[in-house]
């Protein structure tokens, strides 16, 4: 005899008669909502303090508000211009009206600054012309002739092409410039002339220096991690302090300390000269050497810590087994031990590389101009020449590079597994 | 130690390897050892050898309005940023580990991204965004962005602690009739406290050492210790910097010891036999 | 957790308040020896005389901060020391308040470049060639010597920026002082300057802050350097045997300006008035070797001090006045090109 309760054709129900599957699903959804509710404040906070500002920075790299907002009428008319010869009398009239208003509203300088990027000397052309506004004209006289009389450059179609090119609210100009490209008349990009190129080299340098710092970090970090992982716990804990202490010390402190050590009258040079190894001080600071040394010093713990924790998880018996089976210790290390650590080292190295390409402080304080990486130029354009479009474009490219690598990292390692020692 | 039957080559290798490791460790700590004594130099240049010892640079540090003000600002901004980052980060970490939902991995990556985005971009972005709102040149904007930079550390450490957390404890508490908030306060919080505190320490250290964002956002009244040191290193290196550095090194020793103590405690709790 | 949040909210609330509350007068100037002299000559006496407290801060001449806070409508800087091209450009862009000359002083009491729409000159200063007489056997006499790597082997210090550097390059290339800006205004002239700089590029150690050249010179890092004359003078007073070559120096005026919208406009003008008084300018010039802008102060200065100022007639011979108009016009593009060139 079968008891009724064992017949499985009716769905399981909870005490209140709702099917269990539905109830469970509801419960799961409730849990999800609760979880999202807990995450929401942080998400909102980051949106406001971090994501939105960066999003607006990205937008700024293609923003082109100056001509459209300061010369609205001229912009509208130039949209229909056939780009041949000089624009019509109506356009000159519109320009006169726009400049008159711009002068009242004190918006001439931003326009002048923007156009000066296109053609050197445009700034003074705009300023000088704006000062003559509003135009006083004899009845029947041509506005165009009057403009050319003020400055003959108004008779040069190139200047008009520059205005027309920027009579829209976005521009590829900054992004092109950040890649050493420039827009040809037909609108396609071409490589800028040799002497004006700079940024491709700077991007290349950023990657190159980061690569070397990463390689050095691996070369120095791996042996230390191995040593610490194989030492008895008490000793390794003690030595670990020596790794963690610099890790927790302010970067500024370490940079200052390296200056003390590396400058031409610094400790290292004095010691070497005192020992008679060298006659004149070696250039160690304010050049690439100094930047490498300090950056490796700062980033080394980021390799040591994850590698150490991977190595800790490898049982020592593996190596012993290989050796007892007749492998040479070196061969055993290479064939058995090393492969198990590769993933951990690679994760640490990728993280170091990602951090390197955004470095600013260390090269700024310990390097010369030839050591500056992309971040420096972002700061330079922001602060010194107030060319925020250019700063945004360089920053965007740097961000794209970082985020691509970070995506690879998240995919391979998982963002939540970032090791903090 | 090497076994007795090791070959001479292995002996040589063994000792070379140790020597190499010791050299690397010296490389790691030497800067800290070198700068501290200079703070006691009576000389006005940051150079060895030290001819006379004095406390004049500590007098400069603690007697000079600028350095003291910078120290004060650091102790306003960093704790405030830490509180903000810890509160938001802990809540989010609890949320992230308590349920599964689509896009969780991506969300986690985004919440952690302030750690990898180049600080200059964060600084310029925040500066251009906050300037029109008048949030530059005051404490609020600076604290908010510092908190954003510290959040990933809290999220990471708290999630890591929660992953080793036994969910049955929460169920047990609930089955005994405790409301969720009480469960959180009396059961969850004490268990994840080491993770929260170490996350908070990381967040604190991040803000306390931050200079790039400060460079963009801080006005003269908000100059922090690292910002003051940055100007000092750039303009004129005096042993006052060494004095500031020594104070900071002592401070990082305290942080480190706290963290190690927490780690030990959390390990004991986790491995304790029930 | 609730209590934590409450604490956070309270902390933030209390921190946000001081930003809007009334505060001291914030005066921002170039740091180092210059600021120290200003503190002694202007800030402290002003505090004593008026009771208004001054928050002193320094910067390196970046206009970005001023622009951002003026556009936000809430400047936190009240008085700022600016170089002439920045003053003129900022005035055009509406970043600075108009100077109320009736409040500040009599225009005719000032040297001409000190009087402008948005600024009041503080001092005349000079960027000149400097060297360490203890380390060099023969004294360099001009920028031609600066470029002579054979006669004077070793590193040279130059300011990391286009301003002054391009002028010096052209002077070294044999362009007569009165032709320098005419040459630089052409693309060929700029190319020529950069080509000249290429000759010694690998021997240049760049500096950014005015305190660096005396340090470099004293430590022997460089054999000679461009330098602000006041910093060299300060190092001389500390016993360093540094010398200035006035020939081929470029001089300019730094001015006080008030960021537009400063809530302390009245106090700012009072401060500028106070700092422009001849007796205070005299104190400043005796502390650092920059020339006063108030003609009356010139007469009060000890002749021994006056001989070291950029304004001494002997020092003006062969010197070049910075062409402000030129740098307003071309500054940004030349600085960008220079920066790209230097980092190459």
TrEMBL record, chain A:
Organism the protein comes from: Gulbenkiania mobilis
Localization per Swiss-Prot or TrEMBL: Cell membrane
Superkingdom of origin organism: Bacteria
ABC transmembrane type-1 domain mapped to chain residues: 203-409
Family (UniProt): Belongs to the binding-protein-dependent transport system permease family. CysTW subfamily.
Pfam families: BPD_transp_1 (PF00528)
Residue ranges of the TM segments: 35-58, 207-229, 241-261, 289-310, 342-366, 386-409
InterPro entries: MetI-like, MetI-like_sf
Keywords recorded for this protein, A-Z: Cell membrane, Membrane, Transmembrane, Transmembrane helix, Transport
Name of the protein in question: Spermidine/putrescine transport system permease protein
Membrane topology: Multi-pass membrane protein
UniProtKB/TrEMBL annotation, chain B:
Transmembrane segments: 12-38, 75-94, 106-130, 142-166, 187-208, 237-259
Gene3D superfamilies in the cross-refs: MetI-like
Domain ABC transmembrane type-1: 71-259
GO cellular component labels: plasma membrane
Localization per Swiss-Prot or TrEMBL: Cell inner membrane; Cell membrane
Keyword Protein biosynthesis: no
Primary localisation category: membrane
GO biological process: transmembrane transport
Topological type in the membrane: Multi-pass membrane protein
Keywords recorded for this protein, A-Z: Cell inner membrane, Cell membrane, Membrane, Transmembrane, Transmembrane helix, Transport
InterPro entries the UniProt entry points to: MetI-like, MetI-like_sf
Pfam families hit by this protein: BPD_transp_1
Coiled coil residues, start to end: none
Record family assignment: Belongs to the binding-protein-dependent transport system permease family.
Name recorded for this polypeptide: ABC-type spermidine/putrescine transport system, permease component II
Native species: Gulbenkiania indica
From TrEMBL, chain C:
Keyword terms: Signal
Record's keyword annotation contains Signal: yes
Pfam families found in the cross-reference section: SBP_bac_8
Signal peptide: 1-21
InterPro entries attached to this UniProt entry: SBP
Keyword Signal: yes
Residue ranges that the Swiss-Prot or TrEMBL entry lists as coiled coil: none
Protein name: Spermidine/putrescine transport system substrate-binding protein
Originating organism: Gulbenkiania mobilis
């Amino acid at each position: 005899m079968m008891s009724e309760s064992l017949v499985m054709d009716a769905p399981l129900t909870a005490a209140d008669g709702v099917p269990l599957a539905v109830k469970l699903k509801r419960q799961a959804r409730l849990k999800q909502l609760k979880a999202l509710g807990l995450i929401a404040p942080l998400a909102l906070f980051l949106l406001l303090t971090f994501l939105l500002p960066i999003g607006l920075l990205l937008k700024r790299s293609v923003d082109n508000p100056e001509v459209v907002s300061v010369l609205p009428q001229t912009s509208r008319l130039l949209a229909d211009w056939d780009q041949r010869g000089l624009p019509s009398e109506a356009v000159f009239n519109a320009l006169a009206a726009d400049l008159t208003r711009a002068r009242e509203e004190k918006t001439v300088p931003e326009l002048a600054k923007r156009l000066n990027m296109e053609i050197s000397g445009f700034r003074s052309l705009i300023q000088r012309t704006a000062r003559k506004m509003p135009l006083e004209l004899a009845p029947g006289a041509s506005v165009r002739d009057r403009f050319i009389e003020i400055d003959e450059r108004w008779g040069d179609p190139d200047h008009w092409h520059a205005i027309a090119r920027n009579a829209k609210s976005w521009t590829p100009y900054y992004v092109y410039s950040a890649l050493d490209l420039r827009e040809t008349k037909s609108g396609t990009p071409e490589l800028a002339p040799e002497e004006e190129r700079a940024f491709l080299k700077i991007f290349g340098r950023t990657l190159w220096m980061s690569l070397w710092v990463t390689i050095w970090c691996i070369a120095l970090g791996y042996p230390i991690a191995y040593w610490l992982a194989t030492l008895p716990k008490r000793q390794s804990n003690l030595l670990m302090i020596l790794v963690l202490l610099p890790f927790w010390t302010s970067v500024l402190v370490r940079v200052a300390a390296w200056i003390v050590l590396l400058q031409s009258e610094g400790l290292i040079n004095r010691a070497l000269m005192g020992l008679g190894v060298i006659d004149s001080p070696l250039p160690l600071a304010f050049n690439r050497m100094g930047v490498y040394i300090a950056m490796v010093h700062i980033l080394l713990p980021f390799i040591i810590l994850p590698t150490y924790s991977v190595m800790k998880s490898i049982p020592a018996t593996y190596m012993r087994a290989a050796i007892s089976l007749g492998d040479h210790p070196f061969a055993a290390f290479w064939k058995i031990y090393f492969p198990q650590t590769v993933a951990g080292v690679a994760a640490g190295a990728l993280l170091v590389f990602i951090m390197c390409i955004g470095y600013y402080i260390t090269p700024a304080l310990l390097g010369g101009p030839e050591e500056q990486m992309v971040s420096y130029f972002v700061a330079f354009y922001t602060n010194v020449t107030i060319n925020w479009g250019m700063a945004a474009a360089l920053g965007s490219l740097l961000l794209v590079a970082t985020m691509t690598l970070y995506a690879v990292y998240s995919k391979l390692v998982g963002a939540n597994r970032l090791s903090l020692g | 130690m090497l076994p007795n039957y090791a070959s001479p080559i292995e002996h040589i290798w063994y000792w070379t390897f140790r020597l190499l490791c010791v050299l690397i460790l010296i490389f790691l700590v030497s800067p800290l050892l070198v700068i501290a004594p200079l703070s006691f130099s009576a000389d006005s240049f940051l150079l060895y050898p030290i001819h006379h010892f004095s406390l004049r640079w500590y007098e400069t540090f603690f007697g000079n309005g600028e350095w003291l003000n910078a120290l004060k600002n650091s102790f306003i901004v960093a704790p405030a940023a830490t509180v903000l980052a810890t509160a938001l980060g802990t809540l989010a970490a609890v949320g992230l580990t308590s349920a599964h939902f689509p896009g969780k991995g991506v969300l986690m990556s985004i919440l952690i991204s302030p750690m990898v985005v180049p600080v200059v971009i964060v600084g310029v972005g925040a500066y251009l965004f906050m300037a029109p709102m008048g949030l530059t040149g005051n404490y609020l904007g600076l604290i908010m962005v510092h908190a954003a930079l510290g959040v990933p550390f809290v999220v990471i450490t708290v999630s890591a602690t929660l992953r080793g957390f036994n969910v049955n404890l929460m169920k047990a508490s609930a089955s005994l009739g405790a409301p969720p908030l009480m469960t959180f306060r009396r059961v969850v919080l004490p268990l994840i406290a080491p993770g929260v505190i170490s996350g908070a320490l990381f967040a604190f250290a991040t803000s306390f050492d931050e200079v790039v964002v400060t460079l963009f956002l801080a006005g003269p009244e908000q100059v922090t210790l690292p910002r003051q040191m940055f100007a000092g290193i750039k303009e004129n290196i005096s042993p006052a910097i060494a004095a500031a550095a020594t104070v900071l090194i002592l401070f990082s020793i305290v942080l480190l010891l706290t963290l190690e103590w927490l780690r030990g405690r959390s390990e004991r709790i986790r491995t304790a036999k029930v | 957790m609730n209590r934590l949040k409450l604490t956070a909210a309270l902390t933030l609330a209390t921190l946000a308040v001081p930003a809007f509350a009334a505060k001291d007068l914030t005066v921002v100037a170039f740091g180092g020896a210059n600021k120290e002299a200003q503190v002694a000559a202007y800030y402290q006496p002003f505090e004593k005389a008026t009771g208004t407290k001054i928050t002193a801060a320094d910067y390196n001449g970046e206009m970005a901060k001023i622009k951002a806070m003026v556009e936000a409508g809430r400047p936190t800087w009240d008085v700022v020391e600016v170089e002439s091209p920045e003053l003129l450009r900022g005035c055009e862009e509406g970043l600075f308040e108009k100077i109320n000359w009736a409040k500040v002083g009599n225009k005719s009491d000032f040297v001409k470049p000190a009087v402008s729409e948005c600024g009041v000159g503080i001092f005349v200063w000079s960027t000149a060639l400097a060297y360490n007489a203890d380390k060099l056997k023969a004294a360099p006499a001009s920028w031609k010597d600066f470029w002579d790597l054979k006669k004077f082997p070793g590193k040279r210090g130059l300011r990391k920026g286009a301003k002054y550097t391009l002028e010096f390059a052209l002077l070294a290339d044999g362009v007569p002082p009165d032709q320098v800006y005419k040459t630089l205004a052409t693309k060929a002239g700029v190319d020529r300057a950069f080509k000249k700089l290429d000759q010694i590029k690998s021997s240049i150690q760049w500096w950014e802050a005015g305190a660096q050249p005396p340090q470099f010179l004293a430590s022997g890092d460089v054999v000679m350097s461009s330098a602000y004359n006041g910093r060299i003078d300060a190092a001389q007073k500390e016993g360093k045997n540094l010398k200035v070559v006035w020939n081929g120096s470029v001089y300019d005026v730094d001015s006080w300006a008030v960021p537009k919208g400063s809530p302390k406009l009245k106090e700012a003008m009072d401060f500028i008035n106070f700092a422009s008084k001849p007796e205070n300018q005299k104190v400043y010039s005796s502390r650092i070797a920059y020339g006063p802008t108030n003609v009356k102060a010139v007469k009060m200065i000890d002749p021994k001090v006056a001989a070291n100022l950029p304004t001494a007639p002997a020092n003006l011979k062969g010197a070049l006045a910075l062409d402000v108009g030129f740098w307003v016009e071309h500054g940004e593009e030349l600085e960008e090109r220079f920066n790209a060139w230097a980092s190459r």
